[in-house]
Amino acid sequence: MTRDDGRPTTRVMVVDDHPIWRDALERDLVEAGYDVVATCADGEAAVRLAPATRPDVVLMDLQLPGMSGVEAAAALVAVDPSVRILMFSSSGEDEDVLAAVKVGARGYLVKSASRTDLLAAVERTAAGEATFSPGLAALVLGEYRRIGRDEPAAAAVLTDRETEVLRMVSTGLSAKQIASRLTVSHRTVQNHIQNTLQKLQLHNRVELTRWALEQGITE
Question: Which residues make Cβ contacts (< 8 Å) with residue 148, sequence separation at least 6?
Answer without folding.
Answer: none
